[in-house]
Design goal:
Blueprint: H1 11-20, E1 39-43, H2 54-69, E2 72-76, H3 84-96, E3 101-105, H4 110-119, E4 124-128, E5 140-145, H5 147-161, E6 166-173, H6 176-192, E7 197-204, H7 215-227, E8 232-236, H8 241-250, E9 259-264, H9 267-270, E10 279-285, H10 287-299, E11 306-310, E12 317-319, H11 330-341
Parallel strand pairs: 1-2, 1-3, 3-4, 4-5, 5-11, 6-7, 6-8, 8-9, 9-10
Antiparallel strand pairs: 10-12
Amino acid sequence: MRRALSMTAAFTTLALGLTACGSSDSGDGAGASGDGAMKVGLAYDVGGRGDQSFNDSAARGLDQAKKELGVEGKESEASTGESESAREQRLQSLVDGGYTTIIAVGYAYAKSVGKMAKANPDVKFAIIDDASADSKGPNVAQITFAENEGSYLVGAAAALKSKSKQIGFVGGVQTPLIKKFEAGYKAGAQKIDPSIKVDTTYLTQPPDFSGFADSAKGKTAADGMYQKGADIVYQAAGGSGAGVFNAANAAGGASKGKWAIGVDSDQALTADPAVRPLILTSMVKNVNVGVFDFIKSVKDDSFKAGVRTFTLKDGGVSVATTGGHINDIKPQLDALQKQIVDGTIKVPAS
């Protein structure tokens, strides 16, 4: 979920921000630190490390690579509403620091990655959630996920668990990517109950990407859904999802039959402890798998450019069971998953 950056327009501030984030940079060698470790740069989407969702999943992939592959990492935060040139400058600063393996988290980087990859052919880039011509290049891995497939399963779970037969969906920004989450969720819910009502709200429209980092807007949107009768709300809204959880809590939480569904990470493990009990399940998007796989491919000299889509079949997306709230319906969800994997069910993406 997919998911502009933490810096001012001034290049000096950007450079300082990059220096302050991540591991120290010895600055020697192309792609290796002073001790010979491969140097990996990670440029976050809105919210950065600590968003309990999309960016945190990417961070886990880098952390795993540090531990298992011995790479050195540097992380660059993102801020709302920054310009294309700011994103380009961020990526170029990583290149200038000797980071020749670079991951850009989020489709907002598409044009920046395309331009920087062309200007720096010896650098290997990966972009999460974009397969467009804007980012395509012989040194670019375009990492995507079948969010619609995982969302189908949590939509089915919502329909099976709903008492009011009315559920909701809160999207951060109305883009084709987030529409994939909505499409899968609605299709899964309607598979179980064709008459179920699905309320949908998007917090912002492009080019305003603040919908991924505005928990107050998320709460307001979900408040309205719960007040109008929805008893389960799924959010694909990055950091704004915390507001959806707060709304479920304010509506009475699980004790009153008010649930929320998390996204990207197993948010019953990562969200504020006060709201974890009301998270019915989460559609886990294993960005960490894509990030680690890319870094390992560069280190092993097996890098391949182009689109790689992580699906339900290969563990790219999954449904969390933390809390045991969906244990009673898991056989039904497993049956649906099998049908998606074998192609019996074709999940819409729009």
